[in-house]
Amino acid sequence: MATEQFVIFDVNENRYQNDFSVSQESGIELSGSAAWSVSKHTLRGGLSAGVDVVEINNGALALSLLPTRGMGIWRGEYRGISLGWDSPVQRPVNPSFVNLHERSGLGWLNGFQEFLCRCGLASNGPPGTDVVLDNNGNEIQTDLTLHGKIANTPAWRTEVEISDVDSGLLSVTGYIDESMMFGPSLRLKSTLQTAAGSSSFTIIDEVTNLGGQTTELQLLYHTNIGQPLLDEGTRFVAPIRELAPRDSRAQEGIDSFPAYSAPVTGFVEQVYFMTLLEDATGRSVVLLKNSTADKGLSLEFQPQQLPYFSLWKNTQSMRDGYVTGLEPATNFPNLKTFERERGRVVTLEPSESAAFEITITVLDSIKSVADVENRIAKIQSQVAPTVHSQPIARFTPVS
Fold first, then answer.
1. What DSSP assignment string belongs to 252-268?
2. 399 found inside a domain
3. Which of 143, 146, 202, 310 has the fewest beta carbons closer than 10 A?
């Protein structure tokens, strides 16, 4: 077995490649595909100036990874099926142009346009106020902005690994530090891995507490899908243990929460919080299938790592962002103070790490969609789902 490793950039080593490319023409043969490649370029001009893009192509599935934006995935394509969505934010935004405090803490939305982005690491959820200790050990109030900082924090090292194991593996790893003096000090090591010629990829993340004191961690994977996988008649399928609407707006659509409409101008988002069942191996899977059930997308993960799941429905006009979000997480995206009170905030001791893994698969046939749906049905057969018709106090603040 042969493995080749390449460093694209490393701030510590003062290494940076303006342009990087590796493929079969470099002398590395992968049995799964001869058309694979990994390359890097930097965007120039506008709000995208200075954003590094790593293009991973396994010969069938292509993904655009953004080390400058927290190792988020800008967009993808599998055999003509586009992955991602059409955001009003049309291009990747350099974090230096994102003011997280804008619009009362909603500034995160100025850069929101990825197929997959993380929310965290120290906090996620809506803007609000938390109480922390200052440098003198006194309690002070601090502002929390929407979905935290990690999606707008650049990696300080990015590396590529190509291995000929099995059909061949392509991996890109980035290291990101979300650290401050007298505050949280967390490191994300994130690897995107895909097999040559396959229709899936896996995110393998490890978050480590670099500090000398216990610290908190919140992490949510905001996976966003628009057309062509999202259309009128698209359905969400999952092995649900318990589900409730987030608020009164979501309550209005509880009877049809798995179904999607065509774009509706002025549609107000609906969010559903749920816990999921798992199979005998400890894994769960959710599915988004289109109206004809011949295309779809599945997410597979371990509820032990990511025990809470949010379904975000935002079927407003195309110009305003017709999209849905499949969001496994360590917590529900409520204000951190509420999640802490409910015991849903992870804590890490000094040098302790938490591991997370998600596999995303593109489905391009009636059979592949049906296979996943049948797997979900088998998991669901363990117990009937509990679906609440209104918000519940265990999941979300209710008045």
1. TTGGGTTB-PSP-TTPP
2. no
3. 143
Number of separate domains in the chain:
1
Q: What is the pLDDT along the chain (399 residues), one digit of tens a residue?
A: 589 999 999 999 999 999 999 999 988 999 999 999 999 999 999 999 999 999 999 999 999 999 999 999 999 999 999 999 999 999 999 999 999 999 999 999 999 999 999 999 999 999 999 998 888 889 999 999 999 999 999 999 999 999 999 999 999 999 999 999 999 999 999 999 999 999 999 999 999 999 999 999 999 999 999 999 999 999 999 999 999 999 999 999 999 999 999 999 999 999 999 999 999 999 999 999 999 999 999 999 999 999 999 999 999 999 999 999 999 999 999 999 999 999 999 999 999 999 999 999 999 999 999 999 999 999 999 999 999 999 999 999 987
Tokens of 163: 């291995």
301/327 Cα distance (integer angstroms): 11
Expressed as residue numbers, the domain containing 275 is 3-387
DSSP state of 269: P
Question: Domain holding 173: CATH number?
Answer: 2.70.98.10
Confirm whether 199 is domain-assigned: yes
Is 195 within 8 Å of 166 (Cβ atoms)? yes
Whether 266 is covered by a domain: the verdict is yes
Q: What is the pTM of this model?
A: 0.98
Residue 398 domain-assigned?
no
Tokens of 381: 């057969």
CA distance linking residue 151 with residue 95, whole number of Å: 8
